[in-house]
Amino acid sequence: MKHSLTLTALAATGIAWAALTGPSPAVAQDSITIASWGGAYSMSQRKAYYEPFMKETGITVLEDEWDGSMAKVRAMTETKNYQWHVIDAETPDILQGCDEGTLEEIDYDRLGGRDRFIETAALDCGVGTIVWSTIYAYDGDVFPEGGPRPSTIADFFDVEKFPGPRGMYRFPNPNMEIALMADGVPNSEIYDLLRTEEGIARAFRKLDEIKSHAIWWSAGAQAPQLLADKEVVMTQAWNGRIYNAVNIEGKNFVIVWDGQLLDLDYWIIPKGHPETDLAYRFIEFASRPEVMANQSKYIAYGPTVKAAIPLINPDILKDLPTAPENTKNYLRIDAEFWADYSDELEERFEAWLAR
Amino acid sequence: MTTIVPTADIVRTADGVPLKVKLRRAERMRKIRAVSLIAPLFLFLAVTFVMPIGIMLFRSVQNPEVSQILPRTAQAIQQWDGEGLPGEDVVAAFIADLRAAKEAKTHGKVAKRLNYDLSGFRSLTLQTARRLPPPETPPSELLDKLIEIDKRWGETRYWATIKKAAPPYTMFYLLAALDRNFDVKGNVIHAPPEVSIYIDVLERTFWMSFIVTAVCFLLGYPIAYLLATLPTKHSNLLMILVLLPFWTSLLVRTTAWVVLLQTQGVVNDAAVALGLWSERIQLIHNRTGVYVAMVHILLPFMVLPLYSVMKGISFTHMRAAASLGANPLRSFLKVYVPQTMPGIGAGILLVFIISLGYYITPALVGGPRDQMISYFIAFHTNTSVNWGMAAALSVVLLFCVMIFFGIYNRFVGIEKMKLG
Amino acid sequence: MALPPYASPVERAWYYSFRVICALIFFFLIAPIFVIMPLSFNSEPYFTYPMPGYSLRWYDVIFGDSPQSILWQRAIKNSVIIGFSATLLATALGTVAALGLSRANFPFKGVVMAVLISPIVVPIVITAVGMYYFYAQIGLASTIPGIILAHTALGVPFVVITVTATLVGFNQNLIRAGSSLGAGPARVFFKVTLPLILPGVVSGALFAFATSWDEIVVVLFLASVEQHTIPRRMWSGIRELIDPTIAAAATLLIFLSILLMVTMEILRRRSERLRGIKA
Question: Tell me, what's the ipTM?
């Protein structure tokens, strides 16, 4: 009896080992694992970066999806059990991760120097990759041309003039800013106000107005999906996702640029990764002007390398968040603010949501 | 065989060993064999299951940040009585520690930890770390320098927070999981209202589990009764309608409800066509959707134990009651229902216990106000990366589940858990 | 229970309305499963009836060779590997332990039993979070063996419960008879014990398999993209891109559940026959 059970156990372990010896990201330097945000954005990265990189170097790019939660990165560096070489991350997380020692400090000499990048794109622990923006978009069928159409950030909060459910990003960044903008606070005063209890309370009061109309999303692809399924009549979204829904899937969505929030995404490297060289090799490749400019063929995000700006697809210029006609009223996300306040605001926002 | 002279009153076996000893030995052998059969699984679970959870739960009282990253401060500040401002030695230790932590890039962790206790401490620590006074500053001027950097260093409560956070173990997270906190003097107080949600969440978890259990009972009892009283030929066919959902993946059923309950989905289509409601209404991303999906998923867990008890009930008692003049309803309530109590208890407890730990269905079908305690454990693990809090909430949830499981085990017995 | 001929009109009315109520409840139980299946053949990416046309395009997303298909096929492969390995391990460990449990009383039997059963009692999020921290530290996070171990732990209680239940009616004299006739322990196990407890072992194995096959929370925490399983892909599908592909995946899984259910029923009846219990 014991004998046969040992055999069964052996068989099971055998299968487990067979699974182990399959393609594993840790094997030598023939693959690199990159985590990004999924959906249309990952698709643009695949076309613009991963496939050309594979062609040039013969290194396989394995893609993973993440939702920006730094827990995974922290767990990786604390346990030295690295799953990802390079991660596409947002600014406040990078500043925090840098302070907590979970991210590799970037050696810009290996990337041709900080000066190649536009302002704020070269962080201590992150290399800028795109300029993107949080906008809101509405369904052109629900608010047809000729009738009243939402056109300002305040309209997003006006449920009498534009009734219907709203899709909203499930996190305080950038809902706190949006609330204050819609409440008439001048853009230059928003972050000073948000550093006070009074400002935070005011933002929550404004958000209260549409709380009962809100459907909350947390993955970038959900926003256009909610709009397409007619679960909402308008939704906050990342501009590239809406651009693709309109231009590739032929949806009748309209972006409202008024009150957009500009931000950057960065490549980061988890601290202490044994294959940091490989990560640099990829980031260097992805920061070449001609490579970076290529991404704008697939999604409406702007480049972060100065020399890439003149190379980008002219058709897409007017749809970039940085286009002059789109930046009449915009706010630059203050990463320092969010690095300092995101912990407490996330907790309060979650408590507010749960109530 | 040589002749054995038996000693007067001891029964011996053929080889001369007293029977008692031999029996005891045999019994011991049986025990050893039994234990050696169980040992592999026991050890396996101890390592892969019990230990991971134990270590995780232990995080709810661990408090390593200040004691490890600011060790000199943690020690020095114990001498301070918590009144006014701490002495030179504490301030000097703090500045030296913070300088070292900034070098090691670990000051962010301390800042995050202190911020749990006192909002704003994160930015205070990080900004201070960037502008620390030079090492050669005389100790007597250090506090003034700090206050120059940020006037909050002149307030007692910031220093008191460091003192509170200094011990290597703490009840802080467990109290926070119950919306409580320590004040500067060490008394337990209510947490500020804008972050107090966990008692609410716990109440909501119980309330939603209660509703789901109640609805499951109301729907489950009649069909279990029907199944138990129909002829086997028919009941076997209908049983499939209970067993198929039972065997169908939770995610498949949740998917089905997401699809059906969408605003443009089948349920709204049908209801509008039938005139049940005139305009499409929102059925998903709210409590209604969560209840519908959870009841659907848990209903078989109610029906199966009820059915197995009802199957064993003979109808002679009912007939006897009827022949004694009781009306059908009365004889049903007074005679039949009491006999099904074991099934009712088992079904209700089982559904309730499973509901308490629900995560996937509310996460996919519900909105932010429909999340149960499991969601917040996942939230603190992944999003806010506050692992102490995740562990503390786990302690609370596990405690609740264990109470009800204890009741279940006492009255139903784990071995009677019906599995299809 | 048929309606007796002397039933009063009230009883008659109640009898029929009771049946209607039951029919509605059964409809509620089964309808979602049957409504989602046809939608997987929709030619358009919507979830509404009437469907404009039929097509297999969503099955092609799973079985074709687009980038999405690669993810789905890897998920199927992972689910199968993890499911079978976890089932084998859980069945072997669980059956042996159940044999031990049924043999003798020993100190702390209650505690031991509680530990063996605990994986189905502890809320799954707690299990997943605990394993996430621990497995990461010992290098098992984001590995297939790590998930197999986790799923084995989750499936083991079912094997212990079902096999223990079969052993309750098991006549230990049969083992003694076998031994006294000169068979060694291994021979006795395979010739006497196993055939009798086999229904319990197999149904335990089926439960263990279903547990692993269906498990999502542990996978959410422990797996990175390389180890994604079918439920994990469906989770992404529901959260991000709701198209009939998830209906197609659901349909395939429903067929598997029908298979599991039928096997289970056959086993149950066989076991009842073997043990002389009349249905």
Answer: 0.89
